[in-house]
Amino acid sequence: MQKWLTVICGFFIVIGFTVLEPARHVAAEANPKSEIVITSFQNLDPKIAGKPIRIRVHVQRDEIDNPTQTLKDEDQAMVYAFFTKEKDNRQTTLTLSKNGLYEGTITLPTAGTWKVHLMALATDPALGKNGTDTMETTWKVGKAHTPAWVWVVTALAAIILILLIILILRAIKRRKRHGQALMQAQKAKRKKNKKKK
């Protein structure tokens, strides 16, 4: 009988640990000690429609129990950027470059106001709901402008072309005059020759 009692008690102890262990893990996830935070977002290139724009997002981990402690760079996250303008949606995945800095490139097809939504997801499941952070902002994207040097080169090419046309017209006019003078001289010579005969 004592043997059966030991087996039954052992069975309930094992069952109890099996049931209590996941509960302890869930409790740890419900009260994580830290959270990830998107601390900055910047574009590294001018925001011009139709041109690639490099972007950078800084993701850090904040200790909840000690808010005065400095933030630590989070190198284990998945970072996404979503861009929306009316019915046009674009997205890019950012990759870790160094020290919690994630970089990517986006090309927006049209100028105007784009809504930007950033999302950082921690790969650490112990963070639970604190393993996600988002940031929203808007971008004013400009039209592609022609650089000033292109206008200068175009103006110079136009001036050179006009000068060439003027020189060609003058040359044609000289040939005409020279041709007319030559013809008149030949006519005069013929007349002289006729008079002599």
Secondary structure layout plus pairing:
Blueprint: H1 2-30, E1 34-43, E2 52-63, E3 72-73, E4 77-85, E5 88-98, E6 101-107, E7 112-122, E8 132-141, H2 148-196
Antiparallel strand pairs: 1-2, 2-3, 2-6, 4-5, 4-7, 5-6, 7-8
Protein model, in words:
The protein is of the alpha+beta class. The chain folds into 3 domains: 1-31; 33-141, Immunoglobulins (Immunoglobulin-like, Sandwich); 148-187. Helices cover 40% and strands 37% of the residues. It is built from 2 helices and 8 strands; from the N terminus they run H-E-E-E-E-E-E-E-E-H. Strands 1, 2, 3, 4, 5, 6, 7 and 8 form an 8-stranded antiparallel β-sheet that branches. Residues 14-29 have low confidence and may be disordered.
Query: Could you give the order of the helices and strands?
Result: HEEEEEEEEH
CATH architecture of the largest domain: Sandwich
Task: Please identify the top-level CATH class of the largest domain.
Answer: Mainly Beta
Characterize the overall form.
rod-shaped
Q: How would you sum up the major sheet?
A: 8 strands, antiparallel
Structural class: alpha+beta
CATH-derived topology of the largest domain: Immunoglobulin-like
Our count of helices gives 2
In CATH terms, the superfamily of the largest domain is: Immunoglobulins
Number of domains: 3
